[in-house]
Specification:
Helices cover about 75% and strands about 5% of the residues. By secondary structure, the protein is mainly α. The chain has a three-stranded mixed sheet. Strands 1-4 form a two-stranded antiparallel sheet. Helix 1 runs parallel beside helix 10, helix 4 runs antiparallel to helix 6 (about 150-180) and helix 4 runs antiparallel to helix 9 (about 245-280). The longest helix is centred in the last third of the chain and has 35 residues, at about 205-240. The chain is globular, with a radius of gyration of 22 Å.
């Protein structure tokens, strides 16, 4: 990757030029520098990674192998599982390699690549959760028109749009980072190239950087959240109009798994954000990031398989076929 390096004179005047570094690699601080903890961390994260990949693959196999699950809701669920596999695979394997090789270095190109892939998959999760909320809204509020509205063409279009929006978000971050090859430091206080931390190290005026980050967050974060909240406000309004309590429970139960995943995704995301912004301890920020990037993708398959009768039935059929 080649690009023209900006001169030091383009840096803000409040940054001391001797403290700026033109880097070819970054150093990830990781979870702990204690050598006695490294084998434990390696085993823990390897198990969590394998459980996540296996769990999400089982969801994809269950949906693809059972004709009864060839519906829009499960189509979006299988794409969410695929995004979760990519989500965790951008961070954990690199960390496992670093633990085994006792190296915390990552190249400049590798860091930007990891950052780009991370943004794509986290944004895909965000967009797909919004699409799934819309799917539940149509199913509950317009049940008679559901097959016509949520047709295969629209479902494929919504997934394609989700991917293109995620790719756009990733490229915007990447283009911003590529403008700067001089950095105030080469140490990233995390186990992966977190986008906000990479931009914080760049020779970039903090006021302008915050404007860019907040603007991107408003476009790619606020709009999907608004879509989810709007969908569930309509869903709640429709459920309250159902006369029988059994009908209310049946209608809301179709949203239970999705609502649990939404709460987990945004709950850990808020914890990660508050941990990185409010905490002055790099260790607390790393733990918050771990909850968001590792625990959430690992728990999603369990939420859907434990709370969804169709998924459990399909997994049982799949088990009997293999056995």
């Amino acid at each position: 990757m080649t690009q023209q390096r900006p001169s030091i004179t383009q840096c803000p005047s409040n940054i001391n030029p001797p403290n700026l570094t033109s880097v070819s690699k970054f150093h990830l601080l990781g979870l702990s520098e204690d050598p006695d903890l490294q084998p434990i961390l390696f085993g823990l994260f390897l198990c969590m990674y394998l459980v996540t990949v296996l769990g999400n693959l089982l969801i994809i196999l269950a949906v693809s192998s059972d004709p009864h699950l060839h519906t829009p809701m499960y189509f979006f669920l299988s794409n969410l599982s695929l995004a979760d596999i990519g989500f965790i695979s951008t961070t954990v394997p690199e960390m496992l390699v670093n633990i085994q090789t006792h190296s915390r270095a990552i190249s400049y190109v590798g860091c930007l690549t990891q950052m780009s892939l991370f943004i794509i998959f986290v944004c895909m999760d965000d967009m797909l959760l919004s699409v799934m909320a819309y799917d539940r809204f149509v199913a509950i509020c317009h049940p008679l028109h559901y097959p016509d509205i949520m047709n295969p063409s629209l479902c494929a279009f919504l997934v394609l749009v989700s991917f293109l929006v995620s790719l756009l978000d990733s490229q915007i971050h990447n283009l911003i980072a590529l403008q700067f090859t001089y950095f105030k430091d080469v140490e990233i206080s995390n186990y992966f190239c977190h986008p906000s931390q990479v931009l914080n190290l760049a020779c970039f005026d903090s006021f302008n950087r915050n404007i860019v980050i907040y603007f991107i967050g408003a476009i790619f974060g606020f709009l999907p959240v608004s879509g989810i909240l709007l969908s569930y406000s309509k869903i709640l309004s429709s459920i309250l109009k159902i006369p029988s309590s059994g009908g209310k429970y049946k209608a809301f139960s179709t949203c239970g798994s999705h609502l649990a995943v939404v709460c987990l995704f945004y709950g850990t995301g808020i914890v990660e954000y508050l941990g990185s912004v409010m905490s002055h301890s790099p260790q607390n920020s790393v733990v918050a990031s771990m909850m968001y990037t590792v625990v959430t993708p690992m728990l999603n398959p369990f939420i859907y398989s434990l709370r969804n009768r169709d998924i459990k039935t399909s997994l049982s059929k799949l088990h009997r076929r293999i056995a």
